[in-house]
Design brief:
Elements: E1 4-10, H1 17-25, E2 32-38, H2 45-55, E3 59-63, H3 72-81, E4 86-89, E5 95-96, H4 100-110, E6 116-125, H5 134-137, H6 140-143, E7 148-152, E8 155-158, H7 161-165, E9 178-180, H8 181-184, H9 197-208, E10 211-223, H10 232-250, H11 256-274, H12 281-294, H13 298-306
Parallel strand pairs: 1-2, 1-4, 2-3, 6-10
Antiparallel strand pairs: 4-9, 5-10, 6-9, 7-8, 8-10
Length: about 300
């Protein structure tokens, strides 16, 4: 059995797919299987994947019966096939740095009571300026210090991490995460979401899993116009739906400050959705009224009253 299973959902990704596959197969930890799940691509993605599988036995290619329209189902298919001791994911347009799997292996073997390790990533693409690690740029270790217990230089154990994710910083980014097989193979990504399926998974894990943070960059996240995450309206709609549901599921875990922070974030989401130009006054008023339930703001109240004019 391979040490690592890397799962990659693919749909019409021929522009960047070869570079992404190369970044996985060229890992310094070569004991891996790459499971490519073709979600009925209509471009040359399937041919590219098949060519790699023909010349490297570590690559397995499977296809969904019909296009699912989102990465969640292909990732679930990959989970059902994963054989590795450790499981991770890589989107078709991102890149893994050469020692990502080696670094994760070292941490998980040295700390057997750790279920998941996540790390930093570097954004890149035509619209991105070089900034190094995203979390480092955002001052993550300073902002999240109440939730990070130092273990060694650059490595932390996360404690009560649901509180950090409650409006402070999500931290966990899919392309940087490596999980122990036993913690994830029985789980499934939420197919209700086209963008937030992975975020929904990591928020659930924050409640029960033993999580570590490695403060180093292990992946590169590509920004480009064809990425699903560029759909701002869908992202706003899914963010609101997920965080409303998650707040009521996790609110009993929060302390007073975390609860207030999450409610403020929900109010921000509702106000953002209310500002969409296509909404009727009735729809706008409903979102503003909900935002006032989470956080009373005079500016929001004045705006809502104006919708009656």
């Amino acid at each position: 059995m391979p040490l690592h299973s890397v799962i990659m959902p693919v749909y019409n990704g021929e522009a960047y797919l070869a570079a992404t596959i190369d970044s996985i197969l060229q890992q310094t930890c070569a004991d891996l299987e790459l499971i490519i799940v073709d979600d009925c691509a209509t471009d040359g993605s399937a041919d590219i994947a098949a060519a790699y599988a023909a010349r490297d036995a570590r690559v397995r290619v499977v296809s969904t019966a019909v296009n699912s329209g989102a990465p969640a189902l292909p990732k679930n298919v990959g989970l059902s096939l994963a054989r590795g001791r450790y499981v991770s994911f890589c989107d078709q347009d991102d890149l893994l740095l050469p020692d990502k799997l080696e670094q994760a292996t070292r941490v998980l073997q040295q700390y057997p009571d750790m279920d998941i390790v996540f790390a930093d990533f570097e954004p890149f693409g035509d619209t991105q300026h070089a900034q190094g690690g995203y979390l480092a740029h955002k001052g993550f270790t300073t902002k999240a210090r109440a939730y990070l217990v130092p273990l060694e230089d650059g490595l932390y154990r996360c404690q009560n991490f649901w509180g950090c994710m409650a409006g402070l910083h999500t931290g966990m980014s899919t392309q940087t995460i490596v999980c122990r097989r036993e913690i994830i193979v029985g789980q499934r990504f939420d197919v209700r979401y086209r963008i937030l399926d992975d975020i929904a998974m990591w928020y659930r894990f924050a409640e029960t899993a033993r999580i570590g943070f490695l403060d180093r960059t292990v992946a590169r996240y590509r920004y480009h116009d064809a990425a699903l995450t560029t759909n701002d309206e869908l992202l706003a709609r899914e963010s609101l739906a997920f965080h409303k549901e998650n707040y009521f599921r996790q609110s009993h875990l929060f302390n007073v400050a975390e609860n207030k922070r999450y409610r403020r974030m929900l109010a921000d989401f509702l106000i953002s959705v209310a500002s969409r130009p296509h909404l009727t006054k009735l729809e706008q008023r409903a979102h503003l009224a909900q935002s006032l339930v989470f956080e009373l703001r005079l500016s929001t109240l004045r705006w809502m009253l104006q919708t009656y004019a």
